[in-house]
Design brief:
Elements: H1 7-13, E1 17-23, E2 25-32, E3 35-41, E4 43-45, E5 52-53, H2 57-62, E6 69-77, H3 78-83, H4 85-97, H5 99-105, H6 113-130, E7 140-146, H7 151-164, E8 168-174, H8 177-184, E9 191-194, H9 200-208, E10 213-228, E11 236-237, H10 239-246, H11 255-258, E12 268-272, H12 277-287, E13 298-300, H13 303-311, E14 316-321, H14 322-329
Parallel strand pairs: 4-11, 7-8, 7-9, 12-13, 12-14
Antiparallel strand pairs: 1-2, 2-3, 3-10, 4-5, 6-9, 6-10, 10-14
Helix pairs in contact: 4-6, 5-7
Amino acid sequence: MPRKTTRRSILKSVGGAATLSAVGGLSGCLAAGDRQLRLDTVAVESDVDGEFYYPTQEHIESGAYSPLTRPLYIYVNHATLAENPSLIGSFVRFYIEGQHDFAREVGYYATTDEVREANHARLDAVLDELGVSTDGEPSGTVTCTGSNTVAPVTDAAAEDFENLHPRAQVNVNPQGTGAGFSEFTRGQSDVQSASREILPSEQETAERNGVEYSRYEIGWDGLAIVKHADNDWCDRLTLDELRRIWEFRSDVKRWNDLNEDWPNRPMMLYGRDTASGTFDYFTEAVTGEIGNIRDDYSPHSQTYNIMEGVGRNVYGLGWGAVGYYHALRGDGE
């Protein structure tokens, strides 16, 4: 059976290989063809205690790396679950049971055991409400849409599930959280990966289309603020400085607009595009409102392209899922 398009296969297809090390933050080189992309992370002020933290496992799982730590979710379509519970129900149960390992395998972070047990209880309640069970050998195809960020976790679960059940196929087709919800809320997919919660407008679409669903928290992720490794002036940023950089109609155009001791050079900015749940989470966490962002940055649908832009420009700055960098480093492969 041919493997699906995943973050790992995308990275291999572009020749991506990284050596990243935690010296202060995550830093190192990413090979792109015959060029070297030099990357580092910036420490960010915590809204918990006012200290500055890098997006490490310790800081994310302790809650210190806030507000740039976010939960990762899957949403399950009840109609298709009821139609084929031995397939979809078994896959979701398998996913939940192994969610700690699947998240860590691809460079993200495990939830607490209590969260996982709550997921099991929620799935049991849904199955009881639908009057179905997961008995029987799984057979058929599960369609998974949504987040590029969460897709590697879902794909790790899918691959192991397929290995156990040869008659089952799980197609993971990431296109962004927002684009995925557009399909899911119209009943066009079985499982939706999401890097944010469903929006009220998306809930309304689901209601109009008679789509009922349940939500499961399957991991945690940190959003990294990334700079070029040769940037030796910006080691940390306050939340106010991040807001000033990224808010709509920002007056920060050059590095010395933020700090007069920094270079009088244009700040080249990179981030996710509007179809991304990462975009929604970041803009709300940093600027206070989803979609409140300057219009002169370089938007991308893939985190790799953000790293590529920053890694080629000493005056670059960007943001994206830190788990992506762990996967590039080769963790879990």
